């Protein structure tokens, strides 16, 4: 092979950036927490194959829909990660001023995706009641749990 050693090192260094991106997408964004499944999908095990050509066209369509939903969900997770990174780069000073957590070491002026998400979460909830007339406020409030004492009264 005639590959320049510096290019090999550079290519290998991308591995760590990719792994960090997957960690953010998995643990912070939840990009891989999808629950799109279909009973049409054959069970896979040690003694089964994943040949889908033997399935009916209806089952193949259901499986294709599940795959499209999974890919869409993961793609939205990638977009959300990118938005956090853009906010971190463009608003680093504001994010660093508003962050109320503790960082053991500050390795960069640009905050991490987790720091950005924490600040956004705090800012949103501090201003949440200012959005009473918005659609998102109505959706969130319709899905919120009733206080525990109220549920006890209903149970009795």
Question: Could you characterize the architecture of this molecule?
Answer:
There is one protein chain. The protein is 62% helix and 0% strand. The longest helix has 34 residues, at 57-90. The chain has helices spanning 5-29, 57-90, 92-98, 113-126, 135-143, 148-155. The model has no long low-confidence stretch (mean pLDDT 83).
Order of helices and strands: HHHHHH
Mean pLDDT: 83
What ranges have pLDDT less than 50 throughout 5 or more consecutive residues? none
Shape: flat
**Amount of beta strand:** under 5%
Find the structural class using helix and strand composition: mainly alpha
* Rg: 23 Å
| Through-space gap between termini | 77 Å
The biggest beta sheet, please?
none
Portion in helices:
55-70%
In short:
With 156 residues, this protein is mainly α.
What features would you highlight for this structure?
flat; 156 residues; single chain; mainly alpha
What is the topology?
Blueprint: H1 5-29, H2 57-90, H3 92-98, H4 113-126, H5 135-143, H6 148-155
Helix pairs in contact: 1-2, 2-4
């Amino acid at each position: 092979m005639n590959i320049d050693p510096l290019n090999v090192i550079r290519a290998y260094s991308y591995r760590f950036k990719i792994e960090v991106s997957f960690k953010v997408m998995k643990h912070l964004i939840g990009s891989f927490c999808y629950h799109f499944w279909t009973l049409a999908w054959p069970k896979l095990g040690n003694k089964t194959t994943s040949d889908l050509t033997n399935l009916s066209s209806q089952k193949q369509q259901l499986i294709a829909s599940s795959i499209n939903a999974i890919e869409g969900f993961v793609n939205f997770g990638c977009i959300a990660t990118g938005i956090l990174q853009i906010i971190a780069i463009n608003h680093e000073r504001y994010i660093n001023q508003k962050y109320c957590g503790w960082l053991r070491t500050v390795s960069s002026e640009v905050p991490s995706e987790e720091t950005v998400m924490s600040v956004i979460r705090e800012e949103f909830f501090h201003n949440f009641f200012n959005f009473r007339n918005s659609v998102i406020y109505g959706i969130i409030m319709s899905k919120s749990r009733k206080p525990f004492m109220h549920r006890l009264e209903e149970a009795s």
